[in-house]
Design brief:
76 residues, rod-shaped
Length: 76
């Protein structure tokens, strides 16, 4: 009788431990996926900033004024 009770307690503890470890592994995997997505998004932002900065650096002040006048004139 004591052996059966001991085995039952060990099975319940094993099931609880398996559930607990599965939950922790799932959280770690979710955090890793979120970190990877954030890193990808951040690298896209950096690449976009580099592209915009390169275009801005290569455009002269007169070109910028001309473009702004064409897009946002008072006539509109």
């Amino acid at each position: 009788m004591k052996i059966c009770l001991f085995i039952l307690i060990m099975v319940v503890v094993g099931i609880f431990f398996s559930f607990w470890m599965g939950t922790r592994v799932g959280r770690v995997q979710c955090n890793a996926q979120i970190a990877q997505a954030n890193a990808t998004y951040q690298s896209e932002i950096i690449n976009l900033k580099e592209k915009i900065n390169a275009e801005t650096f290569n455009v002269g002040l007169r070109d910028i004024r001309r473009i702004l006048r064409e897009k946002y004139s008072i006539a509109e």
